[in-house]
């Protein structure tokens, strides 16, 4: 295996995109995504990467360029965060509905107002129903590996859907950590060339993104949903093949000391690593606590999750965003809905943590679990809020 | 695990300092992370950066509240705030200053281990610039024994290219001139 290199996660991700020999990068710089785009522009300028770098004037244009380039069969990449994603949201839905393969690096950041450049998951939750494949990453190595996996899955003719890689802004993007690099031969063996089933070409004229009358709209939505939910085998196979190449095995859902745990912490993204330390602390105190880490958010691995959660008495979801006025925060709502018809189901608690960049320590996670287990109601709580 | 906090001003290279230490540790087979205090960057404004080094993979991703080592790149920061806040008992404070260790300890009301080097002067003489990041790496290595000077040369070369040699010289001079007082 290759030697581990100490490198900033954003730079490593851009290097991975370069190794995938991407054809088009269209992006607008926005904190904390900037270093990814900056480094890609350097790779293109230096001639190390033969690609079109389109420095668009807005994220709406970035996603529009991505749709166009994917439609003609070009390997396509973009990156954004928070307000950038909000601005491109209109076209985000179009990219997936038109089944256009591409990869987005989403540097997760809180939505304004108040203006915050810091990490939470409110941006990605805004487009959770957009029909993209959506994965979360726990550390820098996962982010780096996810780039290769995402292009492979996205461009697979059986899938043909865009993939969004969720990377916690600053908490992951700006950290220098050890990352094991791939070489060109590994990428060549893992990632086949992009051969779309159909593409825009003047020699063979076709229409994409046509008008959808009431007679066809519902069928199109069903087809999209089937495509997304049927992509799981390709996603899993992509991880299996990667394990053969790198020795690193990823799954849709993973656990940490969860066997026989009465209480399960449920988390997504970089907070998972911090939570493992909290689990160790609570285990030392003789408490039966484990962790469920969800990597694949869309399509949701419902069967795996039902099996895992049914075994616990209590599940404490660490939600990284708030759904104002809703029954609960997004991830908690979803887990409750998932378990509602199960004959054996845990109590599912909601702790909203780390929003707008508020730091979460292992002690905070321990406190949240204790608070959740002693609560009298089943409302959501914003942890650590003052006043 | 060793946890470090770097205090500097925007443009002095506190973040680079943390990164170089982490990269050197990773090069030698250890595990390390380095990260800035997340936020907007402004030249001249106080900046904090962090690094962790361990023999095992590092899972902890929160900020560092109780560092084992505090490194101060700019002596003027001592007048704004006390950099020893949260410093673990038995830890070390490493300061760029032209003053003697005892007077700094007195100024800060600090009783622990201290390392002092006139990094500003060394940087000006060797690099021609008052950028003290690479110089302070020398003081860090000398006073903590965390790694060898040798293991920093490769990260320096990757980072600085043509001007690596002068930065290595600055680091080595600081290593020789750092005064450590228990």
Automatic annotation (TrEMBL), chain A:
Pfam short name (any one): POR_N
Record GO terms (molecular function): oxidoreductase activity, acting on the aldehyde or oxo group of donors
GO BP: any one term: response to oxidative stress
The entry's keywords: Oxidoreductase, Pyruvate
Signal peptide location: none
Pyruvate:ferredoxin oxidoreductase core domain ranges (all copies): 261-365
Keyword rRNA processing: no
Ranges for domain Pyruvate flavodoxin/ferredoxin oxidoreductase pyrimidine binding: 17-225
Matching InterPro entries: PFOR_II, Pyruvate:ferred/Flavod_OxRd, Pyrv_Fd/Flavodoxin_OxRdtase_N, THDP-binding, Transketo_C/PFOR_II
Descriptive protein name: Pyruvate ferredoxin oxidoreductase
Organism this protein belongs to: Desulfomonile tiedjei
Gene name of the record: porA
UniProtKB/TrEMBL annotation, chain B:
Presence of keyword Oxidoreductase: yes
Protein name stated in the entry: 2-oxoacid:acceptor oxidoreductase family protein
Keyword presence, Oxidoreductase: yes
InterPro entries: Oxidoreductase_gamma_subunit, PorC_KorC, Pyrv/ketoisovalerate_OxRed_cat, Pyrv_flavodox_OxRed_cen
Source species, domain of life: Bacteria
Alphabetical UniProt keywords: Oxidoreductase
Any GO MF annotation of the entry: oxidoreductase activity, acting on the aldehyde or oxo group of donors, iron-sulfur protein as acceptor
Organism: Desulfomonile tiedjei
Domain Pyruvate/ketoisovalerate oxidoreductase catalytic: 10-175
PANTHER family: PYRUVATE SYNTHASE SUBUNIT PORC
């Amino acid at each position: 295996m290759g030697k581990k290199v100490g490198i900033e996660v954003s730079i490593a991700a851009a290097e991975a995109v370069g190794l995938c020999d991407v054809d088009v990068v269209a992006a607008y710089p926005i904190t904390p995504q900037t270093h990814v785009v900056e480094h890609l522009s350097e790779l293109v300028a230096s001639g190390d990467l033969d690609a079109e770098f389109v420095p668009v004037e807005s994220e709406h244009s970035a996603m529009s360029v991505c749709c166009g380039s994917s439609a003609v069969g070009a390997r396509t990449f973009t990156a954004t965060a928070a307000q950038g994603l909000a601005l491109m949201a209109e076209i985000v839905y179009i990219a997936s509905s038109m089944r256009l393969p591409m990869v987005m690096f989403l540097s997760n950041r809180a939505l304004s107002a108040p203006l915050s450049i810091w990490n939470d998951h409110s941006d990605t939750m805004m487009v959770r129903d957009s029909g993209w494949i959506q994965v979360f990453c726990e550390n820098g190595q996962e982010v780096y590996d996810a780039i290769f996996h995402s292009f492979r899955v996205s461009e697979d003719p059986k899938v043909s859907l865009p993939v969004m890689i969720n990377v916690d802004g600053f908490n992951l993007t700006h950290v220098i950590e050890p990352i094991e690099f791939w070489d060109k031969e590994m990428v060549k063996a893992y990632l086949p060339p992009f051969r779309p089933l159909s593409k825009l070409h003047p020699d063979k004229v076709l229409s994409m993104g046509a008008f959808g009358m009431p007679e066809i709209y519902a069928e199109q939505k069903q087809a999209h949903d089937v495509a997304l939910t049927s992509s799981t085998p390709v996603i899993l196979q992509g991880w299996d093949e990667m394990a053969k190449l790198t020795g690193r095995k990823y799954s849709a859902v993973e656990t940490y000391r969860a066997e026989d745990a009465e209480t399960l912490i449920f988390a997504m993204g970089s907070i998972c690593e911090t939570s493992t330390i909290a689990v160790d602390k609570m285990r030392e105190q003789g408490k039966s606590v484990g962790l469920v880490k969800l990597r694949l958010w869309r399509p949701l691995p419902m069967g795996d999750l039902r099996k895992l959660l049914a075994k616990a008495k209590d599940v404490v979801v660490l939600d990284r965003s708030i759904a104002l006025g809703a029954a609960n925060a997004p991830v908690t709502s979803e887990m409750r809905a998932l378990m509602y018809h199960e004959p054996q189901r845990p109590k599912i608690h909601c702790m909203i943590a780390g929003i707008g960049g508020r730091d979460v320590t292992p002690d905070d996670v321990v406190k949240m679990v204790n608070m959740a287990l002693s609560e009298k109601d089943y409302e959501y709580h914003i942890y650590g809020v003052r006043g | 695990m060793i946890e470090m906090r770097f205090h500097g001003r925007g443009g002095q290279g506190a973040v680079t300092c943390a990164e170089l230490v982490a990269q050197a540790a990773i090069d030698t087979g250890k595990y390390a992370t380095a990260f800035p205090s997340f936020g907007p960057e402004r030249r001249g404004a106080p900046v904090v950066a962090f690094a962790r080094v361990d023999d095992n993979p590092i899972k902890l991703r929160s900020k560092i509240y109780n560092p084992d080592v505090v490194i101060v790149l700019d002596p003027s920061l001592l007048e704004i705030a006390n950099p020893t806040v949260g410093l673990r008992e038995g830890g070390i404070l490493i300061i760029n200053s032209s003053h003697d260790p005892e007077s700094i300890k007195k100024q800060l009301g600090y009783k622990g281990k201290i390392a002092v080097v006139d990094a500003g002067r060394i940087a000006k003489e060797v690099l021609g610039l008052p950028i003290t990041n690479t110089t302070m790496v020398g003081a860090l290595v000398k006073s903590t024994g965390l790694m060898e000077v040798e293991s920093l040369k490769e990260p320096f070369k990757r980072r600085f290219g043509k001007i690596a040699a002068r930065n290595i010289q600055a680091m080595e001079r600081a290593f020789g001139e750092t005064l450590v007082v228990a």
